[in-house]
Hints:
Blueprint (H helix, E strand, L loop, with lengths): L2 H11 L6 H20 L19 H11 L3 H8 L3 H9 L6 H12 L2 H10 L17
Helix pairs in contact: 4-5
Amino acid sequence: xxxxxxxxxxxxxxxxxxxxxxxxxxxxxxxxxxxxxxxxxxxxxxxxxxxxxxxxxxxxxxxxxxxxxxxxxxxxxxxxxxxxxxxxxxxxxxxxxxxxxxxxxxxxxxxxxxxxxxxxxxxxxxxxxxxxxxxxxxx
Length: 139
C-alpha cells in the first residue's frame, strides 16, 4: 500500500489521536472479523461504495471546457495526454472520449483550473541535449 494512500485514509478516517498503524490494524481486524462471521453463515455488514458513471459529453461541452481553460487544442491535448487530432475529433463529433478521458473531462467541467494545478506540479522539463557519438570511445 502506498504512503499516499495511507496518508489519505488517515486524514479521512483516523479517530483523534489514532496513528496510521493503529487505523490499519483496526481495519484489518474488522475485515477478519467480518470474514469469520461470513464463514460461520452470519451476515456481515459490507461497505459498499458506489461510483457514479460518467455521462457522455457532446462536442460543444468538450470545447467549452477547453475554452474555459483558455487552451488551444494542442495545449488541451497535452494537458489530457492525448494527441491534438483526438481533441479535434472530439470537438467535431467524429470520435467520443474513452471512459478514462470522460472522467477527466467531467472533473475539468466542474473545476477547469484543477487540470492546470496538477499539470504545474508534474510537468516535465524539456531539455535539448546534444549527444556526441563516437565509435566505442567516450569523449
